[in-house]
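Predict structure. Chain length: 391.
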Amino acid sequence: MHLRPIDSLTGGTLGSDRSRVVDGSSVGSLAIFRPSDEVVAKKAIFALTAVAAGITLLSTVVFPSAQTRAASGLTTIVCLAIVVLAAWLVVASSPSAWLWAAYPIMAVATIAVLDVASADASVTAQVFFLFPVLYAGALLQRAAATVVCAVAIAADACVNVALLPIPVTIVVTSFMGAALGTVAALLCHLGTQNQRLIAELNRRAAIDPLTGLLTRRVLDTAANSALTGARTHTGTALLLIDLDRFKAINDDYGHPAGDVVLQELAGLLTRVNRSSDIISRIGGDEIAVLLPGCSAESAKQRAEEIVHAVRAHKVDISDCSLADNRESNKHLALTVSVGVAHSPTHARDLRELYAAADVSLYEAKRAGRDRVGEMAPPTNAATASSDGARR
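Prediction complete.
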């Protein structure tokens, strides 16, 4: 049974590998620097900037050395610049991609400038190169994290070349490069694994494991989107489909046979409906079909087609253990009762749409099953809306 991607139904992604560009831009664009979770990224930026700037100003102003005292003016200016950039990112409602890209690169440049200005190539000075790498490895796509790590290693090498003898520079840069590269690679790997786990959990929460149909959560999300978004002139319809005498199937042939029946029904509904329809198992033997861009008349016709298709379909239950022990027919004939409702004809919101479809389903059951229930009369609000549109 073929199902469409879930994110095309819900309007969002269920999780993605961070090596993939979110907005479809090329890997070399600034879009790769946009974090997967902007809220968490802003908190990380605030914390890392506060710690780094605080310690730097503390060592410059409160406990200055000869080197830091000489560079105190430059240190203050550079620290304020990175703090302003971080504050801009944190308070902005939707920061642009170039702003996200500027922060880690500027942070690396700031550390390098301060180290050279204070003539400090010690471990305590160079350890701050870990901060932008930690941020990039934990929150950015793999490509962006690689760029930030490479820039940090290059900046560290420049600091060492400017302040240390060449033999010492080679050793120190090698150690720092190994540390920075390892941290970035490990964080990227863990982040990718975490994203895949989240995507799998969301996928399982969105798909019914027995039938492969979507769950009620996905249906409600899609229905709310269809009802509150840009409305088409045809509207949106909802079909509630209930298997007739499903309890008797379970009692007579066993629950494995009942599972086969549900799977067969799910496959049949997937085949006879449009690719744009959302088919969901909402509980037990009840299945709902959301029909975006469908008029009330078309919805009634689609429901009739489903009733006829199910009536003509036979389900083979010969592989079910209980059925094997019986002499009865191993090919079951099924029937369904279908309730139909349409928005805005019968309802204005999702709750009313469900209620109207449920009333129609009850009418089908009361009239003898194996049929489409009578649709509710148009609501006063819907009639007034239609009259206004005609005027």
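Summary: The radius of gyration is 31 Å.
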